[in-house]
Amino acid sequence: MKKVLTIIAVLVTAAVVFAAIGCRQKAESGAKYRIAVIPKGTTHVFWKSIHAGAIKAEQELKEAGIDVEVIWIGPLKEDDRESQIKVVENFITRRVSGIVLAPLDDVALRRPVKDAVNSGIPVVIIDSGLKSDDYTSFVATDNYVGGRKGGERLAKILGGKGKVIMLRYQEGSASTMNREQGFLDVLKEKYPEIEVVSASQYGGATTESAYQASENLLAPRRTPDGGLKIDGIFCPNESTTFSMLLALEDGGLAGKVKYVGFDSSERLVKGLRTGHIQGLVLQDPINMGYLGVKTIVAHLQGQEVDKQIDTGSEVATPENMDDPKMKNLLEPDFKKWLNE
Q1: Contact 99, 91 (CB under 8 A)
Q2: How many domains does one find in the chain?
Q3: Burial 94-120 (b: 16+ CB within 10 A, else e)
Q4: Does residue 217 sit within a domain?
């Protein structure tokens, strides 16, 4: 009797295993991959370009016979940690196939990412890092290098000397913190005659808060003749770059100080063309969204993917902004993919 029960148990186990293998093979060959793409925010051109890249990947994969659905949901404001955490938790409950996430806080999003992975949902991180190894791949600009490029550009147009300020973005944002550090490090290492007179002020997540911070930075550095006591400014993302530009223009200071920013928008391109901005460090957000989705789907299909993928950065200047490559980065055609 004992032998019979043992044989039955073995047969039942084998049946379960073979059934599981069959289901897995069926899922892998004819699955519909539901990919949640979760940005830090949804209003800036940068995030619309990420979205466009994700849709581009979705369409390309469908044309190749792979059934993929991209679901795009993120917080409205880039400081709403709780909202982004809830979005991740909701997608875990909905049992999506995979998550592509731009964490707006490198610590606060660790637990929900771990929960997703523990639930069998792989996560690809894009744009901004996470203090964790629970993700499948990190697809992003090398932000530290991007910050160094910003510092090199500002140093070049200042002739290697002068006084500069930097308006930071937001505490907890790994991407911009790395840019800020790269900027400071390259000046310290290579340009001893450039003095950073302020690098501790934060713009915050909105253009309104960044505009106020910009005015607060500029006001005590104005001279009686309408100029500035500083020679250069660096800002590490789209919202701080835009807000500082606006503060300079409103104060009649645009063009009177060398100014380098990060990312692009229609307004920043105009500032570059008029000479109010002398450099913009550019990422490739369409490519970032595209590779984020392609990477998670490749992983779901059992392919090996790199743990880190650098999507690159370039510096646009008034001199090179009309070069075809630079023009594509300055004015990404996100509307084509989003049907806007």
Answers
A1: yes
A2: 2
A3: eebbbbbbbbbbbebbeebbebbbeee
A4: yes
User: Which distant-in-sequence residues (6+ apart) come within 8 Å of 41 by Cβ?
Assistant: 47, 74, 75, 76, 77, 78, 104, 205
The identity of residue 271, as a single letter, is: G
Judge contact between 242 and 46, C-beta under 8 A. Answer: no
> Which of 1, 84, 105 lies closest to 37 in space, CA to CA?
84
Say whether 156 sits in a helix, a strand or coil. Answer: helix
CB proximity list for 23: less than 8 A, separation 6 or greater: none
- pLDDT at position 9 is 41
Q: Which amino acid is at 70?
A: V
Q: For 329-338, how does the pLDDT look when each residue is reduced to its tens digit (9 = 90+)?
A: 999 999 999 9
Instruction: Note the pLDDT tens digit of each residue in 58-71.
Output: 999 999 999 999 99
Domain that holds residue 78: 32-140+285-310
Q: Is residue 221 part of a domain?
A: yes
Question: Does residue 5 sit within a domain?
Answer: no
Q: Is residue 240 part of a domain?
A: yes
Predicted model pTM: 0.83
